[in-house]
Each structure stands twice: as C-alpha cells, then as structure tokens.
Specification:
about 20% helix; about 575 residues; 13 helices; five-stranded mixed beta sheet
C-alpha cells in the first residue's frame, strides 16, 4: 500500500609512512573548513556581538583544523549521539606517558613560532603541531592559539570531543605537561549554541547531534510517496535559528544597483499566486558510506536515506523578482544567491547559489516555500521560509531563508566554492584539490536504492518468493522511466512496478517508488539484490563505484546492492 495525499498517481510496469599518509588524509579533511571559517568571519555582515570571540580563542579552537562546524570532516570526526571524553576508554586521551619528557606550562608558552616550534597542550599531553601549521590554508591566523591549552576552548565547543579528533592529536604528541595546580585557572562555563534545538522523532537514524543530521527510516520511504514531515531527513550545518515569524522580513537585493525590497511572510502569502508541488530533496552525499568502502572519503557517512519527498507550498521566486522590477535578462545578473539565517559563532551564515536560468525558466518552479505537507515548515526543515529548488541537490535549497541576492558572481561561501563539487578520482585527498577549477553541483543524476529488505535480512526459503521495494529519482525534472532488479549481479533483470506522481515531462521533481516480487533461488544461502534505474533522457546508473569515486563521496549513483540471507 503506497500512501500519498491529494495528487494524481500513475502506476506502470518496469608503517610510519602509512601513518603519515593516514595523518595527511585526516588533516586534508579538515584544512578547507578552517580557512573558510576565517574568511567567513571576515566578510560576514551578520556578526553579532554575542557571537564575537577573542582571536586567541579562535586560533586555539581551530588548532587541528576542525573549525566549529566539522560537517565536511565527519568521515574522521563523526560525533556519536552519546558519550563524552571523560568516559573511560581503552586509551585515555592526554594521559601521562611514562617514556615521554615533561614540559612546564611556561615552556609550552615559549613555543609559538615556527622557528621554536608551535606547541599546544591537552590535559597532561604536549603536542607539536608545527607540521600541521605549515600546511594550513588559513595562514598565520592559526598562530593566535600557539602555546595554549585546548581545554578551555574545547569545553565551549564539545563537537571536538570525538575519538578521531583525539587520535589525530595524539600523532603530534611530544611529551607530558607538568601542571602547576596553584596556577590552574577554572574552566569557564560552556557556551551551548545548540541548547534550543527542536525535538526530533526517535525513528530518525541519527548521524550527528551537533549539528543535527539524520536519515529517514527506510520502511517509511518504501511505503510513502510523501514522507511524513516529522520523518523527513534532516541536514543541518549549524544550530537551528530562532526566528520570530511576525517580525520576519525577507530581503531581495539586486547587487548591481543595490536595490533592496523586503517582504513579510504575509506579503508573500497574499501578493503572489501560491502553488503546491511534490519535490524530492536529496543530500548530494546520499549513499556516501558505500563510496567510502571503495576508498576513504570525507563527510557524513550517509546510508541510502538522505532523501525525502514532501508537498511544498510557496510562491514562485520568478514572480517575486519580476514584481520587484528586476530585469532577469540583465547580463550582469548571472546567479541567484540564497542566504540563510542560521549562523556559526562568528556570525557567518549558510549560503548557496543557483544560475539565474533556473529561476527565469517558467517551468523551473523555484519556490519561496512556507508550507510543507500542508502545514508550516518544521523547524529543522527551514521554518518559516525556505528556498525550494526542485531537481537540484539539497544544498541549494537554503533553509531559514533571510536574503535573496541577484549577482554577477556565484555565492562566495565555503559551501559554494570549496564544497559540493565532485573531484576527479585521481584526487585522493582534499589537500590536492583545486576547487576553483570545478563547477558547483546543481542537478542530481539518476539514482535508485533498495529500502526493503535491508542488509542481512533473513528471508524464509519455504515462502518461495519475497518482495523488494525502494525508490528511484533523477534531477533536472527528468521522469523515472523504469527500475530493473537482479539477484545474479545483472545477468538477468526483472522490471519493477513503479508508483509515482503524474507530472508533466521535465517537471517531474519527485521520486518514483518501486516494488517487485522475486523468486527465492534454490541451493543458495544468501543473495545480493541489485537495482538500477533509467530516466526520460535515457540516463542510467553506472555498474560500480570505482569510476565515480571522489574524495568527498558525492553523487554516488552506482547500482545499489543489498545482501540478504536465506533460511
């Protein structure tokens, strides 16, 4: 039984050296973030006094290149939903190591130049991070934290308390800290930027708590064309902002002439025609964990459900821009930048952009969305207003939208310039990457996934048959034409039945759900189910990950495979 609401459906048939390498991989996953943190803090117009940090704090805070938001480093720095660094583990980070020399706090403070070495301490450990600093893209600003203990700063930012972070730090260990208890300063109270986070549904599969990131349950995706709002996948880069809807204003700006017009929510709801369309939003890192199995990649280790579909209601951005009197054919208007109201501690906001052509296109249906599944948008999904860019990766559908800017240049944010770009397979770590030569990802490629049965499920042999279910989706408004399923690695295929929204060609913004009944083969104790899809432009999925592997683990659309057991 497939569930949906209010839309027509159609169903159709169808060694030390090794340590050094490992260290460089870990470091490379952290480098770009810090450099951008500095840039963001410098040019952001959203800085607020309560978020301003002393420069020595910022320096120490970024000593390991793990700025406050280490979302892009989570392959090495993934936060567990539970646990704390003070819990006993097999190795107590920062403990005294008997065969290492002792250094006083004064000696550590003397090492804050490249000539003398750059040292930091954590608990009873002393670390020489000079090698890291030499390769740090943030330049000499990292020197602000030289000679300090990390503890006061990491207590403010508990996201650093992860096994992988301490593992990296210990590789720079040179000695033990001789602590003078009489001079030890009390640790300041933590600043918890996540204290006002919304309540989440317990059925979500949590990948990180701060910031919060979680997948939808697979069984929900398999059965519901429209994902229940509380089970929609969540991708946050920063704390969820608190926004008062009555005083909220959206700023729409033409950067070429500085013309600015503001709209309240009521303005948007009453001055423009509203439309409701089914749209699938997918994180470009969906299925990253499978790419990581091919070779180490950086980012949250998403399974196959960083994807969801909702009925989004809002007004066309095109209509709003024309109402503002902006000439969308102006050659100096090449990009539309979306800026969110979610901020990091330095006051910098999340930002991304799309080409103006997507907005100009009458069939593009870029929305300023204020309702989701006929209800106000949930906090985690962008309340009160979200940019909704159908057919484009989720990173461009900016949540908590506060500003729309027409510009000759694309967004200068980290997420536009130095992330969400597919690196060629020969680039094995981010330190080798030249992001300036790559285009920001826009449309999603054709993909499909198996939601039922799940990995290692036991299928009863005496039933003779079993049912497999999943989804297929293609970006750019392309319709899913068919899904093929195999249990012998593609030697033989069977066409699945599709359930999907009835939408015009090239305005198909939502996934198709598929299901198929398969025979249980005799004489086998396990099988591997494989699926692949084709869209209306005859795009299909690559057989394996090797050809599309990239160091950020983006756009994994290889055949999806699930192994199950037979008893």
């Amino acid at each position: 039984m497939f569930r949906t609401t209010g839309f027509c459906l159609k169903t159709v048939s169808r060694t030390n050296f090794q340590k050094s390498i490992a260290r460089n991989l870990k470091i490379s996953s952290c480098l770009s973030t810090v450099s951008e943190d500095y840039k963001k803090a410098e040019y952001s117009n959203f800085s607020q006094k309560r978020y301003q940090l002393p420069k020595y704090l910022i320096g120490a805070f970024s000593i390991l290149g793990l700025g406050y938001y280490s979302y892009k480093n989570s392959a090495f720095c993934e936060e567990k939903p539970h646990g704390h660094p003070h819990e006993k583990t097999s190795f107590e980070w920062g403990k005294i190591i008997d065969d290492l020399p002792f250094y006083s706090e004064e000696e550590v403070k003397q090492h804050k130049t490249k000539e003398k070495g750059i040292w930091v301490s954590y608990r009873n450990g002393v670390y020489d991070i000079t090698e890291f600093v030499d390769g740090h893209p943030g330049g000499n600003k990292i020197m602000w934290g030289a000679g300090h203990s990390l503890e006061p700063f990491w207590e403010k930012f508990p996201i650093h308390y992860k096994h992988e972070v301490f593992e990296l730090l210990e590789e720079y260990r040179i000695g033990n800290l001789k602590i003078d208890e009489s001079k030890k300063k009390p640790v300041e109270d933590k600043i918890d930027f996540y204290k006002d986070e919304p309540t989440r549904n317990s059925r979500l599969k949590v990948l990180s708590q701060k910031p919060f990131n979680a997948e939808s349950p697979k069984d929900i995706s398999a059965e519901n064309l429209v994902t229940p709002s509380e089970l929609h996948f969540i991708r946050n880069h920063m704390p969820v902002p608190k926004i008062e809807p009555k005083s909220f204003k959206l700023s729409v700006i033409n950067s070429n002439n500085a013309k600015k017009i503001e709209f309240s929510l009521e303005d948007l709801e009453t001055k423009f025609e509203s439309i409701t369309i089914p749209v699938t939003i997918q994180c470009s890192g969906n299925r990253r964990k499978y790419m990581n199995a091919e070779g180490s990649v950086q980012g949250l280790q998403w399974d196959a459900n960083a994807i969801s579909t909702a009925l989004w209601t809002g007004v066309r951005l095109r209509d709003v821009l024309i109402y503002c009197g902006f000439d969308l054919n102006d050659p100096k208007i090449r990009h539309v930048i979306f800026e969110g109201l979610d901020k990091d501690p330095a006051g910098s906001v999340y930002s991304a952009s799309i080409p103006i052509e997507k907005v100009k296109d009458e069939n593009g249906e870029v929305l300023l969305a204020y309702r989701m599944n006929d209800q106000p948008i949930p906090l985690d999904n962008g309340y009160p207003l979200r940019a909704l860019v159908p057919g484009i990766i989720g990173a461009r559908s900016v949540k908590w939208l506060g500003k729309v800017v027409l510009s000759e240049d694309e967004s200068q944010s980290f997420w536009q310039l130095n992330d969400y770009k597919v690196l060629p397979p020969n680039v094995k770590n981010l330190k080798e990457a030249d992001f300036s030569k790559l285009r920001a990802i826009q449309e999603s490629p054709i993909t499909s996934a198996i939601c039922q049965p799940t990995e290692e499920t036991i299928i009863k042999r005496n039933k003779g048959k079993f049912t497999a279910k999943g989804y297929a989706f293609s970006g750019g408004g392309n319709e899913v034409l068919n899904v093929l399923v195999s249990i012998d690695n593609g030697k033989n295929w069977k066409q699945a039945v599709l359930h999907k929204f009835d939408r015009p060609l090239y305005k198909s913004w939502a996934w198709a759900l598929w299901e198929i009944e398969l025979d249980i083969p005799e004489g086998q104790d396990n099988i591997e189910i494989v699926c692949t899809a084709t869209d209306s432009n005859q795009n299909t999925q690559p057989e394996n990950i090797k050809a599309i592997w990239n160091a950020r683990g983006l756009l994994n659309n290889a055949w999806h495979r699930v192994k199950v057991n037979i008893e």
